[in-house]
Amino acid sequence: MNVALAARRADELDALAADVEAEYGVDTLVVPTDVTDEEAVEQLVAETVDTFGGLDVVVANAGTGTERGVGIDELDTEQYRTVMEVNTDGMFFTTRAAVPHLEESAGTIVFVGSFAGKFPRSGSPVYAGTKWWTRGFALSLAAQVGPDEIGVTVINPSEVRTEFGKEYRDEAELSKQRYDPGEITEPADIAAAVVFAAQQEPPNAVTEIDLYRRDKFEML
């Protein structure tokens, strides 16, 4: 299976593409994309289909958040709109462009949600709200396109060791330092969940996967 990689940073995409090609022996396509730009998302899907002949699996993973602990009365409008546009508009634009091609292949779309999309998060209510939206959108989409043999999965992880929050460097670095190996979900664990969802063949689909730390509920 060949892979199209899309994000805003072309240099990091190029490096990732080289790693994927070397490790898995597949062809890659790099398409720098801002998911809040609907024309850019449509071009991403069109270029992928033109290059590889279709879509089998789409992973909607783009996301951002607000600075944790900022009171709702202190959150500026620009930050609010950025989170809403990336986390909700981006998911919608991606889905709208991909669904016709996934119908042709009886493919799968995987949304990366969050623990925050199932349980209240006092430190980041706007981010949490977008993840409740993601989960509701994914489950409702599954009801709409399931009869067309499109699989829809939403994966809800708790803490994951990523660059998430890099807009707030101190917070991102603190997150990296807070957990030792084995104490936090790794990106490879999320990837394995995506693969599991994508491997399901019609008429089956895995609608939802919760991937939490085993002690997550003790931390609440």
From TrEMBL:
NADP as UniProt keyword: yes
Glycoprotein listed as a keyword: no
Lineage: Archaea, Methanobacteriati, Methanobacteriota, Stenosarchaea group, Halobacteria
Name assigned to this protein: Short-chain dehydrogenase/reductase SDR
Any GO molecular function: oxidoreductase activity
Domain of life assignment: Archaea
Keywords linked to the UniProt accession: NADP, Oxidoreductase
Taxonomic source organism: Natrialba hulunbeirensis JCM 10989
InterPro entries: NAD(P)-bd_dom_sf (IPR036291), SDR_fam (IPR002347)
Cited Pfam families: adh_short
